[in-house]
Design goal:
Low-confidence stretches: 246-259
Radius of gyration: 31 Å
Structural class: mainly alpha
Oligomer: single chain
Organism: Baryphthengus martii (Rufous motmot)
Domain DUF4209: 131-210
Distance between the termini: 44 Å
Strand order of the largest sheet: 1-2
Pfam families: DUF4209
Helix content: 55-70%
Strand content: under 5%
Shape: elongated
Number of domains: 3
Protein name: EMARD protein
Length: 683
Amino acid sequence: MALSDSVTTCLSPPVHYVICKLGFEKKDTYDINNILSENGEVCWQAVTEHVYYLESDQSVDFMKSIRSFGPVCESVSLYFKSLSKEQFVIQYALWFRWTNSTELFLEVFDVLQCIQSTEVALGLMKLTACLERALGDVYLLIGKDCPFLLRDLLASEQLAVVFGQDVMNVLRVFIGSPYGLNLRNVLWHGFASPQEIPAKYCATLLFLTAGLGQLLQTYLLKTKCILIHRPYVIFVGLDELDIFPGKYLTISKFLLCYIYLNNETISIAEELVKLSSFVLKTMLPFWVDALTAFKESRYADCVILLLPQLEVGLRLLFTTTNKCPNRLLTAEVKFLSEADYDLMLAKHLDNEVVNQLPAVLEEPAMASEFLWDFLNHQEGPRIRDRLSHGEINLEAFPREVANQIVAFSITLLCRFSDEDMFAFKEHMVIKPLMNCASCYRSRFHPISRLKKQVLECMKSIHLWPELPTVPEEHAQMTKGLEGNAEASTLILMISEIISHLQQYMPQNCCSSDNPIDGILSERLLIELCDAHICTLYSPRPVLETLVVLRKISTQCHQVSQQVIASAELRYKQWMNKTLRSRQRHNYLRMLNSIKFLSPALRLVLVLITLELVHVHLVCKKNPFDYQQYLKFLKSVLQYTENLVTYTSPEKNKWDETLELTSKALMKIRKINDRKLTLMQLAT
């Protein structure tokens, strides 16, 4: 890990030349009045003259364009430094309104007046994120589905219609194209150190953003269109993100006070960044400023600064353990056009050689599962994507999220160090964080989401016995179902299937007193869901199986919600005597039907949870008839989908639900007899 001290840049020689030297080769002094009119508007025609094109195919010649823009950018930077904040606000604040982030762009002007390079890099990262979001809003004036990648957005016909193709080519010289300066990606992927980003490029992008606002105003007046800003993404379920709770202080016998990462913890972290081999010394200012931002309650700034540095540290581990040091220094076209975390956390390298990074992490949960959860999984917070694409209101960024990223970063700083870090690891505020990290389990992988689904569904079904019901003598007035042969057959089949499944269940969750209610319980599901299932590198059959299992669980939950809603409504109508004769009979049939529907649905939930527990084991064994198994699962899905239809308020076909359930149970019993379930194949 001596690399952390010896590396002076993470930019490859060609990229370093483009960003740090090419735009400084022309020594001409450029007159700002060439691109700035007397009333303060950007003269786009003069600006676009600095974009050069290749003779071969008329595509942008990025090298010549960057060289030509060098003096222009210098002139813009000097011009902004000559303005007071009041002058800048008067002249430009209006032209930033289209971004829906006026204050942020005004803050970037303040950054340009300081000499701290980390502030310029941070300002540029925030500027590009908000600019991308605003351009996406403009795109939606004409188009429908906004491109996810900035390079595709800038190359779109829709933006060319609004701003002009020449103007979009100017932007592509600075951001979006991997062949240009590519400032956004170089920063967000952690390749550039603070001193490697010239402030004049940040100034120029600020200038161009105001110019885009001027062009957009002309377009909107001409077309009578109204620019609508998409709402920001709001993090929901913050309790699920609470992995590193810090510590709890007992105030009284019954009250616990939650303490976030406090100043003492951050002070230790500030020492760790100087000692840990996880930190490249050229990137140290980013770490220091990130921790300072946390102390100052600037949580978005903190996370924006930390995420690229986590990527740098992991890339350092990745390149060292896989003996490919060139990847640490690569900021080339191909590498920056892909998701870097995906590459580093993949099971295999490009040449199908096994990736050694997870083994070095020792506990995959220490980094891989946490990073997949917070950054990649579609149902997770996807923090970096949403921050870097401008989807989050930076002013309202939640402390809870920053708390997790900072705490996780501290554990990595502790874990990877050449120094004797025992004293740090055993410190009373650090040790709980290390313990949390070592036992982390994925929360947003489809496996984890399915576990959550089945538990929520079982809780819902367990509410059925508590539903209000008519007195027993009223129910007996209508022909019941308890004595029906069909009802008896249902109970018998459920009992038979349970007896087949019992060998795969934890023994402490099985009750012989009542084989149905005693086994098909919430306690059993909790026990099954507590079993750790590896979520890393799930093969395709596993993911396809999970899709079907989750659909089954979703349908079961909808059935339960419909039953609860119908039972409560009908009871109220019964008591108010507003039901017609036919409706009364249908209500009583429903009350009798759900007595048998409840164990059937609980059986389905137990079955899919048992299948989930064994799915990885089967896929590691010899190939099995997966298509036939999937066909069985889809038949169970069809049963639950039909149940949703029949139990809906519009249908209320309660007799038919029992017929459906009977047929479904016969299929389940048949597949059990043929030993084709995953739990049977796994043994």
